[in-house]
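=== RUN LOG ===
request id: a7f3
mode: sequence -> structure
chains: 1
length: 193
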Amino acid sequence: IAIMMMLELTGLGMIKTAGLEITMMLVPVIVGAIVMGPAAGALLGGVFGLISFWECFGKSAFGVVLMGINPFLTFLVCVPTRILAGWICGLVFQVKPLRLSAAIETSLGSSQPSTMLFFMTTLCLCFYNTDFIQGFVQAMGSANAFLFVIAFVGVNGLVEAIVCFFTGAVIAKAVVFSSGKLAARRTAVQNGK
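=== RESULT ===
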């Protein structure tokens, strides 16, 4: 949580672009979910969601417009989607824990569902028929909601996937490996070795 707060305060957590923000906040969520499990992933996802919602009060132009349309729906887009992403990340890793391939799969498999599936689906369900989102739809020439999601998130989703793929997997594996070695050393000391 402290790392997430630091990312928010330094502006490195959500890098502003012309459309949505490219979020790096998912990396601590992924690492926490891998290292501590689904409940911790959900908690960290909730913190990420609350930070994202907080940004809608002036830091994010996109979020400010959504808040002006409907604050409750904006909360639904920001918070529950991130809680679900963190929880699912922890569940995915539990299938094959303590392997680098599992950390890589979890990292890659968590960034895209978070952005594409949970966040954008909820955004479309809550705001697709508003003039604000329809302006984006017309500007992008999207024929339907699915094409709109692909076009709208395209570059952002790709950058997030790459960052989460590399940093999430490497950091999580290092922490899991280090904590495993520490636990083995602690057991050896307790056994008098």
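=== NOTES ===
Strands lie at 14-16, 21-23.
The longest strand covers residues 14-16.
=== END ===
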